[in-house]
Design brief:
2 domains; single chain; about 230 residues; alpha+beta
């Protein structure tokens, strides 16, 4: 008899207490649980054919917990007994893992060159784009948003498209970034005027405009480095 198959097909309530993730965690601590037991505890319920331990074992076959972040909904719904609701529950665990890993690899902007390193890909773009980076008081990146694409007329960009995400991220600092695909990174009169407008609005709304960086084919221009902010 395959012991694992036997255990996984029994009802959870009929298993010995030392095989139950919840009871084991309460008795020995959450760190005592295996990957399968941790996932089972998070899932709560199994399927018609497998109890929650069996389902967790099936999901983690040839995988580690951290691999859940790479799964797609199609990978899960093809498993017998997993519908969209259960798949989303599993994907949410993967997304939590992904975000924790991203937090551990946090990006901090200490100088304009750090920003340029992060957005250097803009120098290869053929379309004009306006990107906004949002930071906390430690200059740590909280999020980024593309607020305009193509034939960029910077004076027509709506300030609300910049500030609404700032509120959502609960940001402190704002860094504007846009590219000049066909020219040098030197700012135009419109760029300077627009930057002044966003700076004034930032002050009124309780944010700090940290920089406006223009990316050209070769190099970049930083408003803060040039004393224009």
């Amino acid at each position: 008899m395959n012991f694992k198959k036997y255990i996984y097909r029994k009802k959870i309530k009929d298993l010995p207490e030392d095989l139950l993730p919840r009871e084991k965690a309460l008795k020995y601590g959450i760190s005592s649980l295996s990957d399968i037991e941790l996932l089972a505890l998070s899932l709560g319920q199994g399927t018609k054919d497998l109890n929650v331990l069996g389902l967790a074992d099936l999901i983690l076959k040839n995988r580690k917990l951290k691999d859940l972040k790479d799964l797609k909904i199609e990978d899960l719904t093809k498993i017998k007994g997993i519908g969209k609701a259960k798949a989303l529950q599993i994907l949410s665990i993967g997304e939590i893992i992904k975000r924790v890993e991203e937090d551990e690899e946090s990006i901090i902007f200490e100088k304009p060159s750090d920003v340029f390193k992060h957005i250097k890909w803009l120098s290869k773009e053929k379309q004009e784009k306006m990107l906004v980076l949002y930071t906390n008081t430690m200059n740590q990146l909280l999020g980024e948003e593309i607020v305009a694409v193509g034939s960029l007329n910077i004076v027509n960009i709506k300030p609300r498209d910049i500030f609404i995400p700032a509120l959502r991220y609960n940001a402190y600092g704002i860094i504007l970034v846009h590219n000049h695909p066909e020219g040098s990174p030197e700012p135009s009169k419109e760029d300077i005027k627009f930057t002044g407008l966003i700076k004034d609005l930032s002050i009124k709304m309780g944010f700090e405009l940290l920089d406006h960086i223009i990316v050209g084919k070769k190099g970049y221009f930083s408003f803060s480095s040039e004393g224009l902010i």
